Amino acid sequence: MDAPRLPTRVIDVDPSLPNPRLVTKHEERDDWEPYTALSYCWGKSQATMTMPDNLSRHTTDGFQFSALPRAIQDAITVARGLSIRYLWVDALCILQGSSPEATADWLAESSMMSDIYGGATLVIIAGDSQDCNMPFLYQRELVTTSRPSRDGVLDREIPSAHRTTVPKGYVDLKANTWPTRAWTLQESALSRRALIYTKDQVYWRCAFGLVGYDAYLHVLPRIDSLPPVVHERDYWPSVVTEYSTRFMTNPADKLPALAGLARLHCESNDVTYAAGLCLDTFHSGLLWRTEYSEKRHPSRPSHWRAPSWSWVSIDGPVDY
């Protein structure tokens, strides 16, 4: 298993410790270690956060396991089960709050998402979660199916059926909350390997494909919802189109929630990025239009966010 460089802060989930605790690069440890990262929905009930006034306590005393949100508890359980010592969770590893110290830390860390999710040995995706207090480790419902088989004597075959119990098939992740959130687009797209926990299945996804614990290799739409593109110049417009359909709690996150994916794309193609557009395709990037639906109408944010020629200046779906 490869050992990437650890983010600024990670949670040490070593089961021999009294409590999981926050560790930083300032401590005496090897910065090149495997780690997992959690992708989940905060919801409205994210009560446990690291802030400037409790940072010292979280690094010294750690977190009481039973007091953590259920999604984070389950992520710790998965990491321990895989013998991966470190876990990254945004609410605990990035300083939260409105103080200057927290704001500066959030801006610095949110710009590093391409390294954090791209460097993780494994990303744990709570695909069925609506908020952080929903567990994702539970017994999945099984269904009984019939698999054709043949029993026979000499040349006379009598069809029969072999009954077996298997997990339910792939569910459309779009029907859940997780894939509708803006931040989760890059968290999924940047991950190299992922364990995806849906209501009915657990999937393993890597560069070779997606397989469920029904042991079938699934040929399925990408869970980040980005369509395949024939020409490289079409990639970023497809990202913008998908991203603009998603929701965020804080409208000011419009650019930061895509910064990691933008950084990776622009560095890989040696292009400059400004206000949501790639400058190598700047002219065509200006040709966006708003999309209206019965459920959602595009609108301008209450505070200035980007020039009016950028799609970032609009809240709501856009297309090219």
Automatic annotation (TrEMBL):
Q: Which domain of life is it from?
A: Eukaryota
Task: Extract the Pfam families matched here.
Answer: HET (PF06985)
- Domain (Heterokaryon incompatibility) spans 35-187
PANTHER family recorded for this chain? DOMAIN PROTEIN, PUTATIVE-RELATED (PTHR33112), HETEROKARYON INCOMPATIBILITY DOMAIN-CONTAINING PROTEIN (PTHR33112:SF16)
Q: What is this protein called?
A: Heterokaryon incompatibility protein-domain-containing protein
Q: Which taxonomic lineage does the organism of this UniProt entry have?
A: Eukaryota, Fungi, Dikarya, Ascomycota, Pezizomycotina
